[in-house]
Amino acid sequence: MSDSPAEDIRFSLVIPTYNRAHLVGDTLESVFEQTYSNYEIIVVDDGSTDGTVDVLRSYGDRVRVFQRDHAGCAAARNHGVKQATGEYIIFLDSDDLWFPWSLRTYADAIVA
User: Fold this and answer.
1) How many CB atoms lie within 10 A of CB 79?
2) For 81-111, how does the pLDDT look when each residue is reduced to its tens digit (9 = 90+)?
3) CA dihedral 95, 36, 5, 1 (to 10 degrees)
4) What is the separation of C-alpha 6 from the centre of its chain, rounded to a whole number of angstroms?
5) Which of 38, 45, 67, 76 could bridge to 16 as Cys pair (CB 3.0-4.6 Å)?
């Protein structure tokens, strides 16, 4: 247990993606810049054909990558949720950009 109850909250960030090689890296970088660090990143590639998987794999073990045949965003999100280990799940789209304090704000709101 940490000094702050908010620090004990673990988030699973689920990001479905499809043919977003040109965008998903910026999304991931905005997550890596968070001031809150108790999270996992799960990206579900929904059958991309444009090199998205290569971009995702370049992040190594910082990102859990799952591939599936193209079945749509909802199916990809559901697959990601099944893989999640966090107490709270947050959905991001593969073109979302976060402020560095986004996760900290969510954690603080949960314990408030």
Assistant:
1) 18
2) 999 999 999 999 999 999 999 999 999 999 9
3) 120
4) 19
5) 76
What b/e readout covers 46-70, taking b as 16+ CB neighbours within 10 angstroms?
bbbeeebbebbeebeeebbbbeeee
Nearest residue to 30 via CA among 112, 92, 109, 84: 92
Comparing 4 with 32, the larger pLDDT belongs to 32
User: What is the rounded radius of gyration, in angstroms, for the C-alpha atoms of the chain?
Assistant: 14
Range 22-26, long-range pairs (CB < 8 A, 24+ positions): 22/50, 23/94, 23/95, 24/52, 24/55, 24/56, 24/94, 24/95, 25/55, 26/95, 26/97
Residue 62 near residue 55 (C-beta atoms within 8 A): no
Closest CA to 25 of 41, 38, 12, 40: 41
